[in-house]
C-alpha cells in the first residue's frame, strides 16, 4: 500500500498513484535543501555583519581579499547537488513517461467546459472510472482550445491540445474518489471544468462500462435522460431550473418560439432540441455565443440522444 511521506502530508494531497511518493520525496528534498541553505547563508551574513562591523574611523577593515578553497566549495557543492536533483528527477520523469504495455487505454476529450472519457467498449462518460492496481493510459485531445488535465492526488498533469494527441498514464492502488482539474485558462467557465476519478475494483469497472451502452432495463427515457444530462456535463452550461448560464436553460424550453441569432424564430420541438445537441452551430439562440462543441453526435448513441431529448422536453414549456 502506498504511503504519503509525513512531511508531504503536511501540505500536499494524499499520494494515490504509484509514482506520487517519489515526486513528493524529491519535492521535499529540494524544499529542505532550500531551507537549510537559506538559514546557513542568511545566518552567516548576519554573523559576519556583526563580527566585522566597523566601529570607528581608525579601525581598519579585514585584509582578507579572497579564499580559493571556500570559492571552490560554494561552487562545487551546489553543482553536485544539482546533478543529484537532475538524476533523481530524470528517473522519475522516465517512469512517468513510459507507459506499461498492459495499460488500459481510455480516450479523454477536453472541451469548453467539461471532460469526456471514452472507454474500450465505446461508452462515454464525464466521470473517469479506472480499475484499482492496474496501469491506465489516457490518450487525450481537445476539440476547441488548450486545456490541461491534472489529478493532484496522482501528481499527474499533461496539456490537452487541439489537433494533437498527448498521453498520460498512472496506476492507483488506493480505491477512492479524486478530483480532476483543468489547469490551463480556457475561457469563461474554466474554474468549473472539473471531473472525478473513481478508482474501483475490476468488477465494478466492468459493470460501469456495461452501464454506458444505453439506458438500464425498466428505466424511463426521461430518467435515463437525466442521467445523460449529468454524465455528459450538459449541466455545466445549461441549467434545468431556469438559472442563467453559458447556454440557454432547459427549463420551460420545449414548445416555445426561440429567437435565433440570425433574426429568425424556430419552434423548440423534439427535432430542434435533437439538432441543437448534434449540430449546435446550426441554430444559435439569440444572446448566446456558438461555444458548444460539435462532437456530441459521435459520443451519444441513438438511445442516449432520445433519452436526453425526452428529459429536456419533460422540463416544461408550452405544448
Provide an overview of this structure.
It is built from eight helices and twelve strands. It has 319 residues and is of the alpha+beta class. The protein folds into three domains: 1-40 and 71-98, no CATH class; 104-211, Sandwich (Immunoglobulin-like), CATH 2.60.40.420; 221-313, Orthogonal Bundle (Cytochrome Bc1 Complex, Chain D, domain 2), CATH 1.10.760.10. The strands form three sheets. Strands 3-2-1-5-8 form a five-stranded mixed β-sheet, with no helix packed on it. A five-stranded mixed β-sheet has the order 4-10-9-6-7. The radius of gyration is 28 Å and the shape is elongated. The termini are far apart. The mean pLDDT is 84.
Question: Which descriptors would you attach to this protein?
Answer:
319 residues, Immunoglobulin-like, Cytochrome Bc1 Complex, Chain D, domain 2, 3 domains, five-stranded mixed sheet, 8 helices, 12 strands
Helix and strand topology:
Elements: H1 6-11, H2 20-51, H3 68-97, E1 104-111, E2 114-118, E3 124-125, E4 128-131, E5 135-142, E6 147-151, E7 156-160, E8 166-171, E9 176-182, E10 194-200, H4 202-211, H5 221-231, E11 257-259, E12 265-267, H6 270-278, H7 296-299, H8 302-313
Parallel strand pairs: 1-5, 4-10
Antiparallel strand pairs: 1-2, 2-3, 5-8, 6-7, 6-9, 9-10, 11-12
Helix pairs in contact: 2-3, 5-8, 6-8
